[in-house]
Amino acid sequence: MSTFNEIDIACEECGEEFKGTIWTAVHAVEDPKLKDLLLGGELNIVMCPKCSHLAFQDHFILYQDPAGELVAYIYPPAQMREEEFLRKTMLSTYREAQQVYEPEKRKDYDPILVFGLETFVEMMHQEEFLTEQSQVAEVVCKDHHIAYTLLRP
User: Fold this and answer.
1) DSSP string spanning 66-96?
2) pLDDT tens digits for range 43-65
3) Number of other CB atoms surrounding residue 134 within 10 Å
4) What span, in angstroms and rounded, lies between the C-alpha atoms of 105 and 107?
């Protein structure tokens, strides 16, 4: 499920204080338009009601894509110095949350930790490119009757 919060924002241009909406969780399958906004670098951009200045609000985002077997905890780059603590917390809470499911419904992959939405977007574009290359290789192998195996990252 995708979720958002209303936060207090001070415009970096004119100083106007206002409420803005930021997304804190994006479920790629349930909300493909949000996924597209995220991958297009347009998620969590707010506009000042006074001067119309646009600004990106850098906050934690939980990204989930069950079809792609991906859960990403995306933190602002400023929190990179807390990486060890955030990684331990991420893994323990994720694994704890998995315990509520029947064993056959639990995810058999761990989440990833990413610092910076831009870094995540670049990673996703690279993954998309590699997926396309894998699909081409699969077709070539089938056409030439060559055995192949798809590997998970």
Assistant:
1) GGGTEEEEEE-GGGGGGHHHHHHHHHHHHHH
2) 999 999 999 999 999 999 999 99
3) 13
4) 7
DSSP reduced 3-state for 143? helix
Provide DSSP, 14-42: T--EEEEEEEEEEETTT-HHHHHHHHTT-
| Angstrom distances, CA of residue 151 to CA of 44, 62, 69, 85, 130 | 34, 25, 13, 30, 12
What's at 73, amino acid-wise? Y
Q: What percent of the chain has pLDDT over 90?
A: 77
Residue 153 has pLDDT above 60, yes or no: no
Give CA angle at 12 (116, 82), nearest 5°.
Answer: 30
